[in-house]
Automatic annotation (TrEMBL):
It comes from the Bacteria. The chain crosses the membrane at residues 20-38. It holds the Pfam family Flp_Fap. This is Flp family type IVb pilin. The lineage of its organism: Bacteria, Pseudomonadati, Pseudomonadota, Alphaproteobacteria, Sphingomonadales. InterPro entries: Flp_Fap (IPR007047). Keywords: Membrane, Transmembrane, Transmembrane helix. It comes from Alteraurantiacibacter aquimixticola.
Length: 58
């Protein structure tokens, strides 16, 4: 049992997969935050254009 625990404690093959998973999650969160900001700006721009077009008709 003691050798098994030493083997499990020194095995680092799973650590790399976890690190890649954490990096992928961080990139996904950053992308979501960036796209939300772009979406808000795009919504504001379309609202301004729509308002100017409405005012031009009247």
């Amino acid at each position: 049992m003691k050798n098994f625990l030493k083997t499990v404690a020194s095995d680092e093959s799973g650590a790399t997969a976890i690190e890649y998973g954490l990096i992928a999650a961080l990139i996904a969160v950053a992308a979501i935050v960036a796209m939300q900001g772009v979406g808000n700006e795009l919504n504001t721009t379309f609202n301004k254009v729509s308002e100017q077009l409405s005012n031009a008709n009247t």
